[in-house]
Amino acid sequence: MHYLNYSSLYFFLTITSITILTMTSPGSAACSGCSTRTTKSDKSSILPLVVNTWPFTNATAKAWSVITSGGSSLDAVEQGCTVCEEQQTDGSVGFGNHPDENGETTLDAMIMDGVTHDVGSVGCLRRVKSAISVARAVMNYTKHTLLVGELATQFAKEMGFKEETLSTNTSIEDWKQWKAKECQPNFRQNVVPDSDSSCGPYVPATGNSLKQQPRYNMEVNQGNHDTIGMIVIDKAGNVAGGTTTNGANHKVPGRVGDSPITGSGCYVDNDVGGAAATGDGDVMMRFLPSLRAVDNMNRGMSPSSACEQALAPIIKFYPDFSGAVIAANKTGVYGAACYGFPSFHYSIYHPALQAPQVAEVACMKKVK
Fold it and tell me: Taking CA 296 as the corner, what is the angle to CA 36 and CA 276, rounded to the nearest 5 degrees?
C-alpha cells in the first residue's frame, strides 16, 4: 500500500493553492460538552471525485482508474472496494482476519446508487470473499436490499461466486490467542460464566446479576482501522457509494455491524451527494450518521459541518465512542469529521491531483 509522506502532501497542497485552516466549525455547537479542534477540510474539486475512509490509497487509485476510463460510479465503488478486500487492508477488510467467537471470519458490505437509490447489501456473509460484489449482485439480481448469513452464501453460489474458506493462519492464530486469554476482550454481557473473565458457553444471568455496561467498542481506534467506505462522483455528477468490512474482532457469531445498513455505513443521493461512516458500528448504526450527513448537506451545510452535526447525537449518548464520517456534495466539495481519535485520515483523488492523496482532519474532543 502506498502511503503519503505528509510533508510532501503539505507542499503539494501549497503549490496547488489548497490550504488547510485550523478553526472552529459552526457545526460544533450541536455537540454539547465538546470542544472542536477541527482542521477545516472542506475543499472544492472538479469532477470526477473519489473519496474514501482511511489511507487506503490503493483502493482510491483503482476507483479513479475505473471512473476515468469510462466505468460507472457503481463500477468504481465495487472495484475500488474489491482492492481492499483482496489486499486484506489493515486486517479489517476482507478475508483472513477478525474471527468471531467460533474462529470464523464473516463479511459485511453494501453498495448504493445515488441515481435510483437502489441498494444491495450482505451481512454475516460466510465463505465467499467478494462481499462488495455479492452486494452488487443483490442489487442487480433481486428486488431485495439485504441478504444475510448462510442463505446469503447460498445466493452468492447461485450467482457464480466461489465458495472457499475465509480463514488464514493469521486469523486462526488470532483466535487461539484470544481463547488462551480467557476470551478477552468480549462482547457478551449479563451472562454466566462472567464474560469479563471466562469463555462460554454462556447462559443468561438472572435476578440482580443484570448490570448496565458500556456499549461502545474500546478496540476501535487508530490501530484498528475498521471499514472502508467510499464515495464516487463521475463527471456527470452521478453518485455511488459502498462499504466493506470483516467487522468487529471476536464478535458474537451472527453479528452484523453498521457497514451494510443503508444510511448508517453509507448513503448517497444524486441531488445532494454522499457520505460514509467508519468506527464503532454497534453504536453508530443506531443514529444513521451517513443519512444525517447527506440530509445536513441538503439543508445547506458544508460537508465537514454536515459530518460534525451527524456525529453530535452519537456523542451525546455515547461520549466514549470512536468514529468518523466523510462526505462530498454533488459539486465535488468534500470534507470529514471525527471523534474519539486524535485525528482521522481519508483518501481523495480528483483531476487536480497526480495521484491519490491523504487528507487529515483533527477530531472533536470532549471537554473534561
Answer: 80
What lies within 8 Å, CB to CB, of 304 at 6+ separation is: 25, 27, 38, 40, 41, 42, 327, 335, 336, 337, 361
- What is the DSSP annotation of 29-42? GGSTTEE--EEE--
Cα–Cα nearest to 244, from 222, 264, 259, 266: 259
Question: In the chain, which residues have pLDDT < 70?
Answer: 1-41, 208-209, 212-225, 367-368
Q: Cα separation of 330 and 319, whole Å? A: 32
Nearest to 229 by CA among 147, 336, 304: 336
Query: What 8-state DSSP symbol labels residue 335?
Result: E
Which is nearest to 361 in space by CA: 115, 42, 103, 27?
42
Residues 244, 83: Cα–Cα separation, whole Å: 11
**How far from chain centre, in Å, is Cα 314?**
16
Q: What pLDDT is recorded for position 225?
A: 57
Residue whose entry in the numeric block shows the C-alpha cell 471466562: 198
For 343, the enclosing helix (H) or strand (E) is strand 343-349
Asked whether the beta carbons of 340 and 318 are under 8 A apart, the reply is no
Per residue in 155-195, pLDDT (tens digit) is 999 999 999 999 999 999 999 999 999 999 999 999 999 99
Model pLDDT, residue 366: 77
| Single-letter residue type at 225 | H
**pLDDT for residue 34:** 46
Residues that are catalytic: 227
Q: What is the 3-state secondary structure (H, E, C) of 152-180?
A: HHHHHHHCCCCCCCCCCHHHHHHHHHHHH
Cα distances (angstroms) measured from residue 158 to each of 11, 68, 347: 51, 32, 35
Asked if residue 122 lies in contact with residue 145, where contact means CB atoms within 8 angstroms, the answer is no
Q: How far is CA 266 from CA 10, 207, 235, in A?
A: 29, 40, 21
